[in-house]
Write a structure and sequence with these properties.
alpha/beta, ABC transporter transmembrane region fold, about 10% strand, ATP binding
Length: about 650
């Protein structure tokens, strides 16, 4: 500028060209472009590395972690890896070069305009950074509330979409829509408060920069008026201040964004610090599988470290045996299977396979020997072929077909429009409950495990399909140690050993016949499923409707009173009592469509076991042919109407069983 003002100041074109070249080099098409081009591989490498590390760490964590975290939280947490890579980029690519620029600017101003200009510049920068630091500290709480609101919004959105069937079935679409709208509004309010705080702080920071510029300009004007500086130097001062303002604002923004990034990444960092509770011990060796001899030795377990779900269970299962766990819901049956598959480690005691403590062997070599069909199988949003092949990735198509035939699902799949290429939807929602479970069974069959775990594996299939699957299970479990959890007792009658679990303890064990004869807890469970609990004396007329009454010869002495009622020979007092019962129903619950006197046991199944069919046949042969045929026909057509008086019929039942 000074060369333009003086005629003998030399050629101004060199200065203009130099200025233009420097501006071009510092613009987006110069050094900035080169910097971005060089940073591209670093940016993507850091992002990919963080994402892979986060996913790998999460998938290696134990069941207790996955049971306590929602999938939406984990997905958002993985995205927190972007925040970490962005923070690294800002520090290395932008902050360090700008810091160097600021130092050069301060030194140049001090050398050109004196120490006072340098002092004003440093004082302005110091006050600016103090205010920016206080902003970051005060905005942390607001930023954390903003992030929590974002997590809540993601959770509500994902749960509503994943549970669409339940939402629609209960006609709660409007409720979910409003809940999501409230979450979005709450998140926006948090964002608004946070952003407003930031802009107010930016205003104060701008005032500090303006005051610093004015002080520096007054000093420069004073020096120019005193002849100690030129107008060209004054123009350079203004340019440097503009160049100085951008780095200062960047550093203020950097503090905010760094704070936001680390708050966004807090959950990821917290997860990355989480250690799996089930992992290989130091020096863990490969499982040496011999035959499949499994032993539970005084095993106890607690999910929360306080209440014990399993308490001192000891079992010795020879290789190749089928063991069934039965008992009430919550007794600890499925937990025993999870302990055997090392989803959790026992709290006390040991579980051994062929004499090897499963905690001392490699976790992956253990699970490689085990095949499981869970109570609620989950399929991937992929084709049926790929879901079945997941049991053994290297299996051929023909092996997949054979596994599906064994699970009685092959013909059903072939009937689909796209056959084995049919997409099952997220978690298998496009399949029925029975189809879903049979695909899971086929997956387990394809795995060819040495130890089989069946957790209510036929709970969602019909009786005919169940019989076919039971035959498939016999082939699958032949020569393999098998553990079965079942509530439908007819499916485990042929088990080598039935273990009754109650309150986390074994109350009795044996085969079906032994436990029935023992008349313990298993016999009680069996009677509740197979036979019907009476409220009124046996009324054969309910079975045969308008059929002829029973003959007197068919009445046993023990059931004389009941047979009298069956023939209509009730005493006056009994008739009066029956009339009172009709006018005032008992408090015992019954279905609206049932006749009084034929209350069903509410837990009775819909099927008629063989022992009950034998009882019906016995009833038919002990009476006249026509009457016996009528009773047998009534039982076959309406098994729910049969009721037995335990006190009078138990001997007959036991003999038939």
């Amino acid at each position: 500028m000074d060369s333009l003002a003086k005629p003998d100041g030399g050629s101004p074109w060199i200065a203009v060209t130099t200025f233009a070249a420097l501006r071009l080099a510092s613009s987006e098409c110069g050094i900035e472009l080169l910097r971005q081009w060089l940073w591209i591989p670093v940016r993507y490498y850091s992002h990919d590395a963080m994402t892979r590390a986060a996913y790998s760490h999460m998938i290696h964590l134990s069941a207790d972690f996955h049971d306590s975290k929602s999938s939406s939280d984990m997905m958002v947490a993985i995205n927190g890896g972007n925040a970490v890579s962005n923070a690294v980029e800002r520090v290395l690519l932008r902050a360090l070069p700008m810091l160097v620029d600021m130092c050069i600017a301060i030194i140049y101003l001090s050398a050109t305009f004196g120490s006072y200009e340098g002092f004003i510049t440093m004082a302005t920068g110091t006050i600016f950074f103090i205010m920016a630091g206080r902003l970051v500290a005060e905005s942390k709480a607001a930023s954390r509330l903003r992030v929590n609101a974002l997590y809540q919004e993601h959770y509500i959105r994902q749960s509503g979409l994943q549970g669409w069937q339940t939402v629609s079935a209960f006609n709660q679409i409007g409720y979910e829509d409003n809940r999501h709208a409230d979450a979005v509004t709450n998140r926006w309010l948090r964002e608004q408060k946070y952003i407003l705080t930031w802009y107010v702080s930016i205003a104060f920071q701008t005032m500090v920069l303006t005051c610093g510029l004015l002080a520096s300009a007054f000093l420069a004007v004073y020096r120019i008026r005193s002849g100690k500086a030129t107008s060209g130097q004054f123009a350079m001062l203004l340019m440097y201040w503009s160049q100085l303002t951008s780095p200062l604002q960047f550093f203020a923004q950097l503090g905010k964004t760094m704070s936001d990034d680390f708050i966004d990444a807090e959950r990821l960092l917290e997860i990355m610090k989480t250690k799996p509770t089930v992992e290989n011990r130091k020096g863990a060796r490969h499982l040496k599988f011999v035959a499949g001899h499994v032993k539970f030795d005084n095993v106890s377990f607690s999910y929360d470290g306080q209440k014990r779900i399993i308490n001192g269970i000891s079992l010795d299962i020879p290789a190749g045996q089928t063991v069934a766990f039965v008992g009430a819901t919550g007794a600890g049956k499925s937990t025993l299977l999870k302990l055997l598959d090392r989803f959790y480690d026992v709290t006390d005691g040991t579980i051994t396979i062929d004499g090897q403590d499963i905690r001392d062997v490699d976790l992956f070599s253990l699970r490689d020997r085990i095949g499981i069909v869970p109570q609620n199988p989950i399929l991937f949003d992929d084709t049926i072929m790929n879901n079945v092949r997941y049991g053994r990735i290297t299996a051929t198509d023909e092996e997949v077909f054979d596994a599906c035939r064994a699970a009685s699902i092959h013909d059903k799949i072939e009937g689909f429009t796209h056959g084995y290429k049919t997409q099952v939807g997220e978690r298998g929602v496009k399949l029925s409950g029975g189809e879903l479970q049979r695909v899971a069974i086929a997956r387990a069959i394809l795995r060819r495990p040495n130890i089989v775990l069946l957790d209510e594996a036929t709970s969602a299939v019909d009786t005919d399909t169940e019989q076919k699957i039971q035959l498939s299970f016999r082939r699958l479990c032949q020569g393999r140690t098998t553990f079965v959890v079942a509530h439908r007792l007819s499916t485990i009658m042929n088990a080598d050993r039935i273990v009754v679990v109650e309150g986390g303890q074994v109350v009795e064990q044996g085969n079906h016949d032994e436990l029935i004869v023992a008349k313990g807890r298993y016999a009680d469970l069996w009677s509740k499923q197979v036979f019907l609990r009476p409220r009124d004396p046996l009324d054969i007329q309910d079975l045969v409707d308008d059929r002829p009454s029973l003959s007197e010869d068919s009445c046993s002495e023990d059931a004389a009173t009941k047979c009298d009622k069956a023939k209509g020979g009730e005493s006056d007092s009994d008739a009066t009592k029956a009339g009172e019962d009709e006018s005032e129903p008992s408090e015992v619950g019954r279905l609206d469509h049932q006749k009084e006197g034929s209350t069903l046991n509410p837990v009775a199944p819909d099927f008629v076991p063989r022992s009950l069919q034998n009882l019906a046949s016995a009833a038919g042969t002990s009476r006249s042919d026509s009457e016996g045929t009528a009773i047998g026909s009534a039982i076959s057509s309406n098994p729910g109407s049969l009721r037995c008086v335990k006190a009078d019929c138990s001997d007959q039942i036991d003999s038939q069983t």
